[in-house]
Amino acid sequence: MPAKKLPDEVLLKSAEVYKKFGESAGARYLKITRESFQHRVRCCFERGFLTEKVYGIRRQEVDGRLQLDLTDGTILVGSDAHYYPGIASTAHRAFVAMCKEIRPAAVVMNGDAFDGGSISRYPRIGWDNKPTVKQELDAVEERLTEIEEAAPNAQKFWPLGNHDARYETFLAQNAPQYEGVDGFSLKHKFPLWRPCWSLFVNDDVVIKHRYKSGIHAPHNNTMWAGRTMVTGHLHSLKVQPMSDYNGTRFGVDTGTMAAPYGPQFTDYTEDNPTNWRSGFVLLTFHKGRLLWPQVCHVLDEQAGLVELGTHVFTV
């Protein structure tokens, strides 16, 4: 039996909602399943109520928030690289290799690509010799260029981290008269990367640098946000599922792209053991739904050994 023809008023309303919200949020707005809404959208195109598909970022509804629709595809999320002059960590090299291999729809540098050691609010430790701001910026530019070249077609996002904020905070405190001048904002240095506080993917996955703190942060993040939360900041690299009447969502810590015992951290950790893990996270979406997040973990920094699921490779 042929499907019942949808009335014009239903399709006109669906077209309006689709253009405003996209597929996933549009289905939620109309309180119907995604599959039902996709059927309506197809009918809209067939009947001429829609002529252009909605891709990528929708309108920005909250200052500092970007939104991305992704039905099928992958997102690579790395964070806390604290890029240091002359060092390309194993995690960074693996991230670049993965960009070339899987061709992600988007790549996210989830905060603290820039360290800002010389402009930290913490006092100098002894006679330590930190890189200059210029040296750090050059290192960040070199590493991000490698990612850009490995994933030329991917959308690129950079949720601001607390270390990234040091750049503008120092200038605002010491040279406030230069507000608005090009170069006095970190985003001016890296125009291919979209700055934000948070990136919402399909409205039920949030990627941002930090929210809750402490060893149980991934669990608390998703519990209090009511969404899958993908954060960095704590360098712990882990996935914490949480299930309730709404289904299963995840608290994800994206770890650190730096080596846990790298020169960025030696002095202020005083060479103490750190519960940190180097790596990044792969997010895969199927029909708009996030599958179980995968962790890419550095097994051996010196040997360049990395694991992803049951696959072990060298970079």
Keywords for this entry:
315 residues; alpha/beta; Purple Acid Phosphatase, chain A, domain 2; 2 domains; nine-stranded mixed β-sheet; six-stranded mixed β-sheet; 15 strands
Short description:
This protein is α/β, with parallel strands linked by helices. Helices cover 30% and strands 23% of the residues.
Explain this structure to me?
This protein is α/β, with parallel strands linked by helices. It has 2 domains: 8-47; 65-314, Purple Acid Phosphatase, chain A, domain 2 (4-Layer Sandwich). It contains 9 helices and 15 strands. Helix 1 crosses helix 3 (34-47). The radius of gyration is 21 Å and the shape is globular. The termini are far apart.
Low-confidence stretches: none
Provide the CATH architecture of the largest domain.
4-Layer Sandwich
What is the number of beta strands?
Answer: 15
Q: Taking Cα atoms only, what radius of gyration do you get, to the nearest Å? A: 21 Å
At the fourth CATH level, what is the homologous superfamily of the largest domain?
Metallo-dependent phosphatases
Termini Cα gap = 56 Å
Strand content: 15-25%
Question: Average pLDDT value?
Answer: 90
Indicate the structural class. Answer: alpha/beta
